[in-house]
Amino acid sequence: MTNNKRKTRSRPKELYRVRNWAAYDTALVNRGALTIWISQEAIEAWQEERKGQDRGRPKEYSDYAIEMTLTLKEVFHLTNRGTEGFLRSIFAMMKIDLFVPDHTTLSRRSKDLRVHLPRGDRSALHLVVDSTGLKVYGEGEWKMRKHGKSKRRTWRKLHLSVNRQSGEIETMLLSEAGVTDGEAAVLMIKEEIDQVIEEYSADGAYDKRKVYKGIKEHSANCQINIPPRKDAHIWQHGNCKAPPHPRDKNLRYIRKHGRHAWKRDSNYHQRSLAETAMFRIKTIFGDHLSTRLLATQSTQAAIRCRALNIMTQQGMPESCLVA
Fold first, then answer.
1. Both 201 and 55 in a single domain?
2. Same domain, 283 and 323
3. Predicted TM-score (pTM) of this structure
């Protein structure tokens, strides 16, 4: 019996080498250093400052203190009670005369906490955007295969925009599963980004009129790298008085040179850096959210993004292709 299948030669896998391994190794070690997560600035701003016109009793702990405590919880995979005991022991050993927020305070304050993402150099804002799913509660994969889908099974969508140059997360949004990528992208552009966007790259799920409109209203000269779908048509023809539409420009280039050439010439493949950021979040912090309310889940996801930015600032690998 003869085998008629054509044998195809597999392309050899490209090999990369990290050329700054010593510096990157130090950065990986520093991720566990308490001096990074518990800074002198946080200790000095531990208590809430009362302003002259404020009424009522001031908060016992500042937002900065709650933010730092929740960051410790996510980095070291602790519960609220475990975080309370962990921080008390650290303050006792460091002889810091400060009270530690209890687990009830952490749970209550995390509902409306405004988390600030630390960012480095933002001279050029080249964003790569994508989304991923985070599990909340419900049976695992084995029971789902065995007995079918449960009514209690649910998940959230984490939307990220990553700075292509620095690898830092610029904006994030946690939404319910029914929110589309286009809707989340418009919200992040309008409410979170305060700087001109020079380049915006995303996959075909963002090929929506409202996404293009939101980007152009924010940054008129932004280069948009979103692949049109395969059966796409021109949105704005040449006899229109309005300036050329960026989507039509991409579509005409694809029709003339091919989709592969457009991806290569527009650096569209850099969009995979957003997927890299999501992989890092799930690898370091896990793919589950431990809280039940959407407000506290949003804070938990934002704290993870904050911690990941701090880790990124410690140092990232510089890979080069091995000839």
1. no
2. no
3. 0.88
Residues 215 and 100 in one domain: no
String of DSSP letters for 74-140: HHTT--HHHHHHHHHHHHHHHT-------HHHHHHHTTS--PPPP----SS-EEEEEEEEEEEES--
pLDDT reading at 320 higher than 90? no
How many structural domains is the chain composed of?
Answer: 2
Flag whether pLDDT at 262 surpasses 50.
Answer: yes
Residues pairing with 18 in the sheet: 319
pLDDT tens track for 183-221: 999 999 988 888 899 999 999 999 999 999 999 999 989
CATH number at 193 reads 3.30.420
Q: What percent of the chain has pLDDT over 90?
A: 66
In a domain, 4, yes or no: no
CA distance 285 to 265: 35
